[in-house]
Amino acid sequence: MKIFITGASGYIGGSVAAALLAAGHRVSGLARSDDVAVALAKSGMTPVRGALDDAEVLAKAACDADVTINAANAGHRAAVEAMLAALAGTGKTFLHTGGSSIVGTRARGELVADVFDEETPFTPTPQRAPRVEIDNLVRRAARDGVRSMVIAPSLIYGCGRGLHAHSIQVPWLIQVAKKFGVAKHIGSGENRWANIHIDDLTTLYVLAIEKAPASAFYFAENGENSMRDACQAISRMLGQGGRTQSMTIEEAAAEWGEGPANDTMGSNSRVRAKRSRAELNWQPKARSLIEEIERGCYAE
């Protein structure tokens, strides 16, 4: 198949692209610069020069492909609208990458008990409501003749297979631990995030392309850990004896920014990928987050 990917130079999109290329598909990727275009070409993709604001470029690339994967920016509504409009009535596949932070709560590092699967109703925070609206927009496109679907990954870890080797959260925690000589979490660090290895996530994308029904929504997770768990593992990996320290949300914001501190590093996002397991027979197999930190790519 011909597959067009936005975010093909990124962590998720690049890893998905590598898996699809290995399976024999022809993959094109959006390139925002000449340097990125050259890098994509070297990796085996056909570069499509443009950006998420280039509606005509996106529309043409989507129409030229059998499958379009949006893995660039979950909050860029105009890009999604441009591609869905171009695909209306074609029956072609459009897979949008969302995120499990849509169920997140600003908890300042403390535990929230709520756990969500794909069918659990929830009310998003004002910060996450626009993301939910985009997810719903994608799913409604099935009424207009698009085989549209959403995958919402939880915290992603592991070594990527594309141009960018790492995600954000775990490297951020490692950087802070190196900077201060001790691993740090917000508040008690008992806030919990579901998580998923990048290799298991790419497998889910391939299965969804092959088998998912129109309007499907899937969380992607294989267990959960508290931020304190992750920090303790980082501390052991760095030879800091497993020690951790608490920091305030303001101190965290100074390191990562106000939004990421509140909505990611200090929040809870506890989801269960029931539908993807039952409907697609998805079976995650990669090592756990703690194992990857202590004995995997982060230790290496």
Q: How can the largest sheet be summarized?
A: 7 strands, parallel
Approximately how much helix is present in the residues?
40-55%
Task: Tell me the β content.
Answer: 15-25%
The rough form would be described as: globular
Show unreliable segments. Answer: none
Oligomeric grouping of the chains: single chain
Total helices: the number is: 12
Query: What is the first-to-last residue Cα distance?
Result: 36 Å
Structural class: alpha/beta
Order of helices and strands: EHEHEHEHEEHEEHEEHEEHEHHEHH
Q: Tell me the Rg in angstroms.
A: 19 Å
Side by side, the strands of the main sheet go 3-2-1-4-5-7-11
**How many extended strands?**
14
Mean pLDDT: 97
Notes on the protein architecture:
This protein has helices at residues 11-22, 34-42, 55-64, 77-87, 129-140, 169-180, 198-211, 227-237, 249-256, 258-265, 274-280, 289-295; strands at 2-6, 26-31, 46-49, 67-70, 93-97, 105-106, 147-153, 155-157, 183-186, 192-197, 216-220, 224-226, 244-247, 267-268. It has 300 residues and is an alpha/beta fold. Helix 1 (11-22) links the parallel strand 1 (2-6) and strand 2. The protein is globular, with a radius of gyration of 19 Å.
Characterize this entry briefly.
The chain is α/β, with parallel strands linked by helices. It has twelve helices and 14 strands. Helix 3 packs across helix 4 (77-87).
Layout of secondary structure:
Blueprint: E1 2-6, H1 11-22, E2 26-31, H2 34-42, E3 46-49, H3 55-64, E4 67-70, H4 77-87, E5 93-97, E6 105-106, H5 129-140, E7 147-153, E8 155-157, H6 169-180, E9 183-186, E10 192-197, H7 198-211, E11 216-220, E12 224-226, H8 227-237, E13 244-247, H9 249-256, H10 258-265, E14 267-268, H11 274-280, H12 289-295
Parallel strand pairs: 1-2, 1-4, 2-3, 4-5, 5-7, 7-11, 8-10, 9-13
Antiparallel strand pairs: 6-14, 10-12
